[in-house]
Amino acid sequence: MNFSKLTISSALAIGLMASAPMTTMAADSADPIKIVVNNWSSQVVLSNIIGQLLQSKGLNVEYKSSDTQLQYTAMTAGDMDFQVEVWEGSQAESFDKAVKAGVIDLGSHTAVTREDWWYPTYMKEMCPGLPDWKALDACAAKLATAETGKKGRFVGPPADWGKHYSDRIQALKMNFQEVPVGQAATLWAELQAAYDRKEPVVIFNWTPNFIEAKFEGEFVEFPTYEPACLTDKKWGSNPDAVYDCGAPAKGYLKKAGSKQLGEKWPAATAMLKKVNFTNAMIASAAALVDVDGMTPEDAAKKWIATNETTWKTWVN
Ligand code: TMO
């Protein structure tokens, strides 16, 4: 048993060395860098890509599953060290607080992001005036279900994603009800079922994502986001409520590190600052899992094997 295990791991080590000789990051701590893993595919694949690249440099890593809001409490406390996808639309509020408490902004990816209500394009015939949110609201009856009574059904994100859609529905006095899913896969199942029958459906979606390569659709246009919308009740069409606006249409995607990251692993930190994914790279990373059915670990291996020119610019 032990012997065969040893043989396999040394064969792997030799294989790795033969194909890509790498220096270790000698100044860095041998303690594991704790990488935050969330509950949507691109984030999990990207986390595995980063973890595997760090391991190839001789560093130890550990993957830690976390809620997208509580992760910042954990990072502030140094219980988690690295987050590869900080989405402006769903994490900015908790991220900004964490930065004030010592969490490090490790810079932005090239990717431009958006997260909001989304519908398949065929709905434009059923609800004239889309993508305007008022046109969607006028069309609420077409989205009514037994579950939502007279109100339109909006299939919302898992509770931990930091959106405030029930608040938005109230603030904009919409004739809708949010029905949140427990996990991302349910969003895609809802979309697929409606799409096959050309039935109306409005779900939470985001870009970059694998969805855009498989389904035709677009985001609902809500009142244009400004930061004051989240903090100043007087801002926007409802003078008594916050959240009377859409999410940022051109949001950032950042990376975040714990305070101890730079202190304990300076070489790794220098690399993580250089990590940079584009929209196309993130959408195809998600597709490896959501379309091709790969495990995130295998998807990451495949990505590393096929994108050497990209990651070489980060690690060297
Ligand atoms: C946080 N997310 C990218 C899933 O919208």
Outline the fold blueprint:
Layout: H1 2-19, E1 33-37, H2 41-56, E2 61-65, H3 70-76, E3 82-87, H4 88-100, E4 104-108, E5 114-120, H5 123-126, H6 133-138, E6 152-156, H7 165-171, E7 176-180, H8 184-197, E8 202-207, H9 211-214, E9 217-219, H10 228-231, E10 253-257, H11 259-264, H12 266-274, H13 279-290, H14 296-306, H15 308-315
Parallel strand pairs: 1-2, 6-7, 6-8
Antiparallel strand pairs: 3-10, 4-10, 5-8, 5-9
Residues 40, 87, 90, 115, 161, 206 line the site of trimethylamine oxide (TMO).
Which ligands, by name, code or SMILES, are bound? trimethylamine oxide
CATH architecture classification name of the largest domain: 3-Layer(aba) Sandwich
> How do the strands line up in the largest sheet?
7-6-8-5-9
What portion of residues belong to β-strands? Answer: 15-25%
Label the overall shape: globular
- Main β sheet profile: 5 strands, mixed
Number of strands: 10
Q: What's the CATH first level of the largest domain?
A: Alpha Beta
Query: What is the typical, i.e. mean, pLDDT?
Result: 92
N-end to C-end Cα span = 38 Å
CA radius of gyration: 22 Å
**Count of domain modules:** 2
Stated plainly, the CATH topology of the largest domain is called D-Maltodextrin-Binding Protein, domain 2
